[in-house]
Amino acid sequence: MITVRFPAMLHARAGQELTLDESPSDIGSLLDALDAHVPGLARELADPIYNFAVNDEMLLHGVRNHPLESGDVVEIVPTISGGSHSFPRHSFPALFDFRNCRFNRISR
User: Fold this and answer.
1) Contact by Cβ (8 Å): 41, 27
2) Buried b / exposed e across 10-28, counting CB within 10 Å, b at 16+?
3) Are 51 and 79 spatial neighbours (Cβ–Cβ below 8 Å)?
4) What is the pLDDT of residues 33-86, one digit of tens each?
5) Alpha-carbon dihedral 77, 60, 79, 81, rounded to 10 degrees
6) CA-to-CA dists, residue 99 to 84, 93, 104, angstroms
7) Residue 60 CB: number of other CB atoms within 10 A?
8) Which 3 state secondary structure label does DSSP give 54?
9) Backbone angles phi, psi at 2, to 5 degrees
């Protein structure tokens, strides 16, 4: 069983969370399984705006081949970028303090 959590931008199509009774062997197989539940979702998730985290570990390379095990939690995380330099950094210290980041491990 694999649990997949979706970002708010996908809630209308996929819901907040989906639990698959089958256990795909890797992220690529997971995308195929998700596409069976929500047609077209795999193609949408191929967009580089989406990243994947498995058990709070953000994946950066070899994502499709990353192995999965029963009980894993996969989170689909939209890329966050941009911003403005009009606000001084000290105005929002929590935004720049990576100790507050939920995904504190990064797979390389």
Assistant:
1) no
2) beeebeeebebeeebeebe
3) yes
4) 999 999 999 999 988 889 999 999 999 888 899 999 999 999 999 987 665 555
5) 150
6) 22, 11, 7
7) 11
8) strand
9) -125, 135
Structural domain of 63: 2-107
Q: Are 60 and 107 a contacting pair, CB within 8 Å?
A: yes
Q: How far apart are CA 83 and CA 52, in angstroms?
A: 22
List alpha helices for 26-91, DSSP H.
27-37, 41-45
Domain containing residue 62: CATH number: 3.10.20.30
DSSP annotation string for 6-27: --GGGHHHH-SEEEESS--SBH
pLDDT at residue 88 is higher than 70: no
Can you read off the two tokens belonging to residue 2? 């694999």
- The count of domains in the chain is 1
